Amino acid sequence: MDIQRINLLKKIMALEFTCIDFNLYLDTHPEDYRALADYNAACEELLAAKKQYESLYGPLTNFGSSPSPKAWRWIEEPWPWERTF
């Protein structure tokens, strides 16, 4: 697996963690508008990173979350759970 692909996956994982962490914080601090703005920014960055990854390497998830416009790319290797870093 090439280094660009690995780095993009690591970025996606870090952004997912950030969004989950903000989500948990906002559950107990719903009036923290700075945290809400940071959460929204992280979510936008995550969506952009996922879109970039999927346009270059194929879907990250299945079952309707990742369209496959040209060919059915879900069967391409490596499968998400087979990736190593």
UniProtKB/TrEMBL annotation:
It holds the Pfam family CotJB. Residues 7-82 form the Protein CotJB domain. InterPro entries: CotJB_dom, Spore_coat_assembly_CotJB. This is CotJB protein. It comes from Neomoorella humiferrea.
